Structures are given as structure tokens and as C-alpha cells.
């Protein structure tokens, strides 16, 4: 087994967004439900306590009535820079079956902002499962939705 911090266990998507960092951040946080889940699915943020240690419960709703609850904890929250979450814990630090650590980062890039979303996995099997679930397509669509909204478009 390789080290859990091995970059080989990461899947990532990135986009250049033609908007200032502050505008992208505001979209990331204030319009989270609008961009976080690839359409035709939708996200419902039932509880997000935007602070390190805060609970996160986001339910993804499918077009045929599916519901996929994603409960976890915010690990890091740095306004205008990044937020990090994991599903390795539920509220009040109760262990859960870990799948990923999600890292959503933004940084100034030329005339706009670079957005990078990274999924870090504990095991090679989890990484391959995530890839097979359509990581590139799903997280790519999510990044495109954020880009559209932050640049002033509509979905």
C-alpha cells in the first residue's frame, strides 16, 4: 500500500475562470447548491457549517428521485483561497467509511482565477471506484457550472 498522501491517489479538474478571486469565492459559497452537483442532478445543502470541524450534509437529488446523502466534516476553510472536506467523519467526529478528502482551491491567474478541485483517496481501490463512477465527467461538469455562474452566466 502506498502512502495516503501519494499524488497518485488524486483525481483533479481545473478551470480558468474569467472573474476575480473574490467573485469566484462568493459564487463557491453563496451559490454552492447551484454549481456543486452536475445537472440534471441537484444539490441540497441541508447543513454546511463553513469552519474547520463544521458538519457538512449535502444531499444530491437525481432526475428519477434518487437521493445520495453525503455527510462529512469541513477540515479547512480559508476565505478566497480554499475549503477542504472529508467523508471520513460524520458530525461530532463520528468515524465513517472514508472515501475522499475533497480540496477546492482558487488562486489568482492572469486576468482571472484558477479553480482546482481535487479528490484524494485513501486506497487505490477507492480512486479506481471514483474514476469508474465518472469522476472526470462529473467533476468537470461541476467545474464548468461554477465557471459559468462566476462569470455572470446562468445555468
List the keywords.
155 residues; alpha+beta; 7-stranded antiparallel β-sheet; two-stranded antiparallel sheet; 4 helices; 9 strands; 25% helix; 41% strand
Distance between the termini: 42 Å
Q: What is the H/E string?
A: EHHEEEEEEEEHH
Mean pLDDT equals: 93
Indicate the proportion of strand residues. Answer: 35-45%
- Rounded to an integer in angstroms, the radius of gyration calculated over CA atoms is 15 Å
What does this structure look like?
This protein has 155 residues and is of the alpha+beta class. The relative contact order is 0.23. Helix 1 packs across helix 4. Strand 8 and strand 9 form a beta hairpin. The model has no long low-confidence stretch (mean pLDDT 93). Strands 1-9-8-5-4-3-2 form a seven-stranded antiparallel sheet.
Would you summarize the structure shown here?
Helices cover 25% and strands 41% of the residues.
Record the SSE blueprint.
Layout: E1 10-17, H1 21-30, H2 32-35, E2 42-48, E3 55-61, E4 67-78, E5 82-86, E6 89-90, E7 94-95, E8 100-109, E9 112-121, H3 124-132, H4 135-150
Antiparallel strand pairs: 1-9, 2-3, 3-4, 4-5, 5-8, 6-7, 8-9
Helix pairs in contact: 1-4
Amino acid at each position: 500500500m502506498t502512502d495516503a498522501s501519494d499524488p497518485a491517489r488524486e483525481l483533479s479538474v481545473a478551470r480558468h475562470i474569467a472573474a476575480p478571486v473574490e467573485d469566484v469565492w462568493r459564487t463557491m459559497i453563496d451559490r454552492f447548491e447551484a454549481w456543486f452537483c452536475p445537472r440534471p442532478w441537484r444539490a441540497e445543502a441541508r447543513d454546511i457549517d463553513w469552519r474547520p470541524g463544521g458538519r457538512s450534509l449535502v444531499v444530491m437529488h437525481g432526475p428519477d428521485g434518487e437521493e445520495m446523502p453525503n455527510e462529512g466534516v469541513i477540515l479547512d476553510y480559508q476565505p478566497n483561497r480554499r475549503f477542504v472536506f472529508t467523508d471520513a467523519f460524520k458530525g461530532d467526529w463520528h468515524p465513517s467509511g472514508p472515501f475522499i478528502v475533497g480540496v477546492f482551491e482558487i488562486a489568482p491567474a492572469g486576468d482571472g482565477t484558477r479553480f482546482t478541485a481535487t479528490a484524494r483517496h485513501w486506497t487505490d481501490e477507492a480512486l479506481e471506484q471514483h474514476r469508474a463512477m465518472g469522476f472526470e465527467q462529473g467533476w468537470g461538469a461541476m467545474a464548468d457550472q461554477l465557471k459559468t455562474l462566476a462569470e455572470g452566466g446562468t445555468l
